[in-house]
Design a protein that fits this description.
The chain is 37% helix and 16% strand. It is α+β, with helices and mostly antiparallel strands and 337 residues long. This is non-specific serine/threonine protein kinase.
Length: 337
């Protein structure tokens, strides 16, 4: 579909509430195109009073990240539950980043991408209102206390959904969208365990060329420790293959149930052993003897390729999705026997 972007801050209401100097050379954030009716149709602007009402004055906190605090709220006549993210004023998160996320979420639509309900910009408050995903994030289900471990087939299905969502970001619109912060905290789960990618705060929009070469952009180093692509950290050049690397870390985290910091210290920092050897030694004890051998071989192979040192050698997310589907087929066939 088309990817019209609005100009300036026309979607953000009264000019007295706007940032006074929104100019930037970063094409991710600013466009000279006229305002799009899609924005006003799909992106509701809440007043701060409305936000305070739907959250009962920010009564119920669902969690906190480095950028903001998420509150539970209810909107509309049906009292639809929503997640209201109130950005911290001291987080280093600015208006242009906020605008970037609103624009992207307003115009990107995919079953494996979080849906935007609306936003609020008022009295120095920056607030996003998203659909509420009842099962929380994948990180909690891998590392939380007093939870039932996810079965292997479900973990595979979640990974396939995330791969599908990333493939859409990279190829499904007029521009390549590089997420830049793929991690299990940003993978949310609905009632049916369908994953939805969130956290597009740091995402970059890159022109989609007709050639199959990598989409490159110079970028400040952003992302989360343990998930960041070392090639991106070393060169400052961001490509969609940086997301592929981060997803490879997610795959290792899913199969081991180890936090990414541990994975980085034990394996990724110096890679002094094969990935297959590391994965076999560190597979989640709940999964031992439950993974079909051919499924395991495919999973380990695609994970290893995602984590290759050179981005150009890594697979694209479409290939990753296909390989994970193949792995799932082997597992399902074995489970039927």
């Amino acid at each position: 579909m088309g990817f019209p972007f609005f100009s300036g801050l026309s979607c953000f209401g009264d000019s007295s509430q706007r940032v006074t100097n929104p100019s930037s050379s970063d094409p991710t954030l600013i466009s000279t195109e006229p305002p799009s009716s899609i924005i006003t149709e799909l992106c509701h602007q809440f007043t701060l009073a409305e936000i305070q009402s739907v959250t009962r004055n920010f009564e119920k906190s669902l969690g906190e990240s480095r950028f903001g605090i998420v509150h539970r709220g209810y909107v509309g006549n049906t009292y639809k539950p929503v997640a209201v993210k109130q950005y911290k004023k001291d987080s280093g998160f600015g208006f242009l980043e906020f605008k970037n996320e609103v624009v992207l979420l307003s115009q990107l639509h995919h079953p494996n991408l979080i849906s935007l309900v609306g936003f609020c910009v008022e009295r120095n408050e920056l607030i996003l209102v998203n659909e509420l995903l009842p099962k929380g994030n994948l990180y909690h289900h891998l590392h939380g206390r007093n939870i039932h471990p996810l079965p292997w087939k479900r973990r595979l299905q979640i990974c396939i959904g995330v791969a599908r969502g990333l493939h859409y970001l990279h190829t499904g619109a007029k521009y390549t969208i590089i997420h830049r912060d793929i991690k299990t905290n940003n993978i949310l789960l609905d009632d049916n365990w369908e994953p939805k990618i969130s956290g597009l705060t740091l995402s970059k929009r890159v022109s989609l060329k007709s050639s199959k070469s990598l989409k490159r952009t110079e970028s400040d180093i952003k992302g989360t420790y343990g998930y960041k692509d070392p090639e991106y950290e070393r060169t400052g050049v961001l490509t969609e293959k940086s997301d592929v690397y981060s997803f490879g870390v997610v795959l290792l985290e899913v199969v081991s149930a180890k936090p990414p910091r541990e994975i980085y210290r034990e394996y990724l920092e110096d890679c002094n052993q094969s990935l297959e050897s590391y994965a076999e030694k560190n597979v989640d004890r709940f999964l031992k003897s439950k993974i079909e051998p051919d499924c395991w071989k495919i999973f380990v192979d695609i994970t290893e390729r995602c984590l290759l040192a050179e981005g150009r050698e890594r697979p694209d997310m479409g290939e990753v999705e296909v390989e994970l589907q193949h792995a799932l087929q082997f597992q399902e066939e074995a489970d039927r026997i």
